[in-house]
Amino acid sequence: MTQPYVNIDIENGVGTIEFFHPAHNSLPGDILAKLAQTIDDAGNNDDIKVIVLKSGRDRTFCAGASFKELITINDAETGKVFFSGFANVINAMRKCPKFIIGRVQGKTVGGGVGVASATDYCMATQYASIKLSELNVGIGPFVVGPAVERKIGLSAMSQIAIDANTFYSAEWAKEKGLFTHVFEDIETLDAEVKAFAEHLCTYNPEAMREMKKVFWQGTEDWDTLLAERAVISGRLVLSEFTKETLKRFK
Predict the structure, then answer these.
(1) pLDDT tens digits along 18-31
(2) Helix/strand/coil percent split, the chain, to 5
(3) How far is Cα of residue 247 from the mean position of the Cα atoms in its chain?
(4) What is the total count of domains within the chain?
(5) Phi, psi (5° rounding) for residue 137?
(6) pTM, rounded to two decimals
(7) In this structure, are residues 38 and 5 in contact, taking their beta carbons and an 8 Å threshold?
(8) 226 within domain boundaries
(9) How far apart are alpha carbons 227 and 126 in whole angstroms?
(10) Is 243 domain-assigned?
(11) Is the pLDDT of residue 250 over 70?
(12) pLDDT (tens digit per residue) in 171-224
C-alpha cells in the first residue's frame, strides 16, 4: 500500500495503531488529525487494554511534519494550524487513559521525536537514531519540546535541539531515557513489543489508568502551552530567514 493511512487492529486486548505516509512517514495535517482521533477512540474502547503505536514499512519511523505543506504556509493562522498537528497528537497521547507502547523501527526526526517521547514505554531497534532538525530551517522544536524535555531532560533536549544537523544514536536515546530497550532488528523488536503488550493486558486496567495519571501529572496546561508554541513556530516560518532557507528545499 502506497497511500497514506492510519489503521487500528485489535487483538488479545492490544490495540495496534499504525500510521503511514510514503514520504518517509512525514505526516500531513489530515493524517495527524486522524491519528489524534484514533488515539482518542482507542482510549475509549473497552476492548482495548493497551495501545501499541507504530509506523508502516521498515525504514523511517517518522520524518516529522509534511515538508510539502510547510513550504506553502503564507500566513500566521495557517502556520498555527500546521504546527498544531503534532500538538494534537501529543495531547491525545497524554490524555489517553491507557498505556501507549512505542515501537520505533528506524530514524525519527522533529515531530516524530515528540511522538516517541509522548509514549509511556518506548522500544526501538539499533537503527532508530533521532534528530531535532527544526533550527536548520529557521524555526525550533517548540511544539514537541515539552514532550521531549519531559522524557529525556532539559540538558539532553537542548543538546539535540541546538545540534540540529546531527542524528543521535538509538543507544544515546536509550541512555537518556527515551527508549527502554534497543534491539538488533525489527523481528526481535516486534516479538518483544507483542509479548510485553500482551503481558500488560493481564494487569488491572484501573491500576494502569491511575498510574498513567501519575506519570503525566504536571502537564495539565499542555493544551494551552502547545497551542502557544504552535503560534511561535507559525510566526517564525513566515520570517525572511526561514522563507529564504525553505527556497533551497523546493
Answers:
(1) 999 999 999 999 99
(2) 50, 15, 35
(3) 27
(4) 1
(5) -110, 10
(6) 0.97
(7) no
(8) no
(9) 33
(10) no
(11) no
(12) 999 999 999 999 999 999 999 999 999 999 999 999 999 999 999 999 999 999
Helices (H), 54-185: 67-70, 76-95, 111-118, 145-152, 154-162, 170-176
C-alpha distances in Å from residue 92, one per residue of 8, 95, 98, 100, 135: 15, 5, 11, 11, 26
Place of cell 527508549: 179
pLDDT at site 1: 61
Return the residue matching grid coordinates 490495540: 15
Length of the chain measured in residues: 250
163-182 tens-digit pLDDT: 999 999 999 999 999 999 99
Cell numbers given for 225 = 502551552
| Torsions phi, psi for 108 (to 5 deg) | -140, 140
Q: Which domain holds residue 151?
A: 5-186
Which CATH number goes with the domain that contains 107? 3.90.226.10
**Between β-strands 5-11 and 14-20, what pairing exists: parallel, antiparallel or unpaired?**
antiparallel
